[in-house]
Predict the structure.
Amino acid sequence: MAKKDKDIITSSTEEKILEAARVVFTKKGFAGTRTRDIAELSGINLALLNYYFRSKEKLFKVVMIEKMQKLFGVISPALNDANTTLEQKVTLIVNLYADMLIKNPDLPIFVLRELNLNSEAFGSGFHPHKMLSDSFFVKQLKEKRPDENPLQFLISILGMIIFPFIAKPIFKKAIGSEKAFEIIINERRALIPKWVSAMLRTK
Amino acid sequence: MAKKDKDIITSSTEEKILEAARVVFTKKGFAGTRTRDIAELSGINLALLNYYFRSKEKLFKVVMIEKMQKLFGVISPALNDANTTLEQKVTLIVNLYADMLIKNPDLPIFVLRELNLNSEAFGSGFHPHKMLSDSFFVKQLKEKRPDENPLQFLISILGMIIFPFIAKPIFKKAIGSEKAFEIIINERRALIPKWVSAMLRTK
DNA sequence: ATTATTTTTAATCATTTGTTTAAATAAATT
DNA sequence: AATTTATTTAAACAAATGATTAAAAATAAT
């Protein structure tokens, strides 16, 4: 075969398509995206999309897997660190998410939008619920509060940090600018750990 | 004019279209919905959709306004009740949402999905952030905790109750059945008010 | 240098999709 | 009953869209 240093030669156009696909799919969703938008943004010929990725759906799946790993993978190391307390883990999780979501504010709505639209289409490989349920963090939650379902705390913690990014169109008008939104998020780095500690103490 | 008891005669087919539109738009989103799906589900001729609602977009807006009012309107009375304490209001809000969302579990993801996709297209009429910010509830929050932005509590309370419905595809696998999901939600009716009280006490 | 292979391009296809049209039917008005 | 108005239907339109094709250009192998 001629020209097959796949990772050097072809990665250029392939990566150009992927980069544009990330942007357009994230902004418009799978159904709202036209392959022509991706081609145009990446500056490549429309046919190349199918040449490299076979179909719109296959290209989308590549992006979707990436995004899911980004959204749920950030906290993976923090969840299973054997050398931190429950409270330290909460602080770490909140800050890891704050850092990442300020840089990728539309990541949560993208992933959850497509997961809700598509229920079953992404069974391939990645299981965030296992990552969470089997974690050392959940074990510590069980020890601290054997009387409560640890999932209840997990849902609340993730909700408090992720929800503002999903509900942004509502709160943004009450908040004002994008800068003001970031200030709110940054305040939550300290607030949420404090709140969670208080929640864990309630009887 | 002949035949123009609009609320009696035409409401039948018009309402049939609307009912189907609610179902299909909610399930597939605006971009993922085909007008033919709505026509088929409602059992009417395709052309009637444009006859009654002019366009897919206009029909969608009717549904969207409805859904936004449903999502943000439920708690409107509770927010401005002058005869309840802050803690009582939290309990009321949580229960009003639990009742409504168990019956309409895909309402939050629908509204927030479309608001995020469409940023500006729904400036018409309904302003949830005003309803929240100008409420008696927020005034009470300010009195109780003048040191904190009341929005921080508001975001957390709404996040804790609404987020599980948005993140359901993730947690559902960890939870199991639909019944188990409802049990989790019902437990939160008591948990969240207790948690919020603890949060309000933190210094 | 010649040949084979990979990549890119422009044009086109076949469907899908929102909307319209013109005729038919039903209902109301006179 | 005759006429006008409103509703419904089947068919079709025009534009959009995901995908393919066949030829050209670029690159690699011999």
